[in-house]
Design brief:
The chain has 296 residues and is an alpha+beta fold. The chain folds into three domains: 95 residues, Rossmann fold, CATH 3.40.50; 61 residues, Dna Ligase, domain 1 (2-Layer Sandwich), CATH 3.30.1490; 95 residues, D-amino Acid Aminotransferase, Chain A, domain 1. Helix content is 35%, strand content 23%. Helix 1 links the parallel strand 1 and strand 2. The longest helix is centred in the N-terminal third of the chain and has 16 residues.
Amino acid sequence: MHIGILGSLDNPYVMELQRAASANFPGMTTEVLRFADLQVGIGESAIERAVPLKGDGSSSTCTALIVRSMPIGSLEQVIFRMDCLQTWQSRGVAVHNPPRSLEIAIDKWLCLQRLSDAGVPVPATVCCQTRSAAMEAFEGLGGDVLVKPLFGGEGRGILRASDKDLAWRMFGTLQQLGQVLYVQQFVEHFGYDIRVLFVGDESYAIRRIAAEGEWRTNIAQGSRAEPHALSGEQADMALRARDSVGGSLLGVDLLPARDGRLLVLEVNAVPGWRGLSQTLKVDIAKAFLNWVAGER
């Protein structure tokens, strides 16, 4: 089995997948493909049969693609890259995660809407385009909000506003920059959240405890992790969140709130696993490749 990995050679998760394939799966080979090199074609072009193309224009023979990054690009580039994934999926290449799952998870609002439509509890959120609408949301959400980029992860670019004047300036700047204003009620919590990682039909869970003085619980923001045994409610909610997005490798973030609610913050379709793997002493790269091989 030959697997294409969309990412960069120095990406730690790409390297883990390569290591796991070489050490555990005789006959399995991998190659790293760059998003910038992706091409498709229709008609007389030989490119039509390239599923997918490598950077030198030759065709890769991979039967499965693993998406390990989604680089920043223009709107056209992002849409085209998703088109490429859809093309290869339609030609019989197993894409992990499928393009539709990536589209849903990458777009915070679309993901939140899917979760809500599936009956999964989520934080109160308003998505708008003007400062006046955002200020109305700020007041309506209690005057303590998180302002998040529509696209992005690992806690980067998230701002907290609990001061009206600060919120006014922040929303004005974002509007001038042409940004969509994603305004979410800040939920008082216990200083931790729960990351549930789904690998095929298996799930793994850790508790991510925020660093002192920090409200963000992302590992990338300095939180520490410890094993976590899911309650029945937590397991059921994580499963419903996973099913609302779809995919074979997904991270679901649960937040136990101080008021007793259990909320889903988001679903990540290109999740990291280093903190979880180290905490639980489990080889996630091996487990995922075992799933990919079984699916074929």
